[in-house]
Amino acid sequence: MNDFIAQADRPTLERHGLASFDALWSVQLTAVDEPNVERGGWSSVFRLELDDSAFYLKRQSNHLTRTLAHPFGEPTFAREFRNIRRYAQLGVPALQASFFGQRKVDGERRAILLTRALDGWMDLDGWLKRWPELNEPRRQAIIGAVGALAHTLHQAGQMHGCFYPKHIFLREQDGHWQACLIDLEKTRPLLLGRRDRIKDLEPLVRRASCIGDQGVRHLLNAYLDDPRLVEPWLLQLQRRHKAKGAR
Asked: Which UniProt keywords are present, listed alphabetically (predicted)?
């Protein structure tokens, strides 16, 4: 079975004897959180540091998702890996895959996904917790970077499906803010136009309530690139929020 290994990371993995599925499956590490035991299997995440490089190693067993294309199920990491590759091809900033592989072992469905750690980045959740401490130019720069990321994502015809602050990572370099996405398992093509776009944006706006209506307007201005559309979109977001609250 062919495994994916990023060319940039192959030398490091080979130097440490970790350029194979079996080696990455058996390496002893401490999990960064409790295993996910839903879907009839388990999935765990570990931090792996090699030389001056850091990774997150994710291993799972019988942790499957079922779709029309895979009615008997496939590892959730397989879907996430495809989406990581798709984002890279479409130019949507996201986490980078270093290794992917899957195996069937005595009826057990195993999968490994190794990604580059986003050291030097912080999720939007972290920035929102510090919101009262930030000056207005920095707030606007962060919101603008998130709006630009959403614009790039939707222009590429993709819906993230979990567009939450904890899945949006940001960093500042030379006065310029960059944003990228993680957790791509639920990504799918935009099928319903504005409806899907509003559906993607509303959870973000709801969870980032501390930015206020003016912050949302700035977000939409960066996202839409047309000031005339900001108020109609804001109204639609508010309507969806109220509809969800009434359920």
From this structure: Kinase, Transferase
CATH value at residue 159: 1.10.510.10
| CA-to-CA dists, residue 15 to 9, 10, 51, angstroms | 10, 8, 10
DSSP code, position 23: H
Phi first, then psi: what are they for 66, rounded to 5°?
A: -115, 130
pTM summary value: 0.93
Choose among 197, 194, 115: nearest CA to 153: 197
The tally of CA atoms less than 13 A away on the side-chain side of residue 186 is 8
Where in the sequence is the domain holding 232, given as residue range(s)? 122-246
CA angle 47, 150, 215 (to 5 degrees): 105
Write out pLDDT tens, residues 167-192.
999 999 988 999 999 999 999 999 98
**Same domain, residue pair 98 and 11:** yes
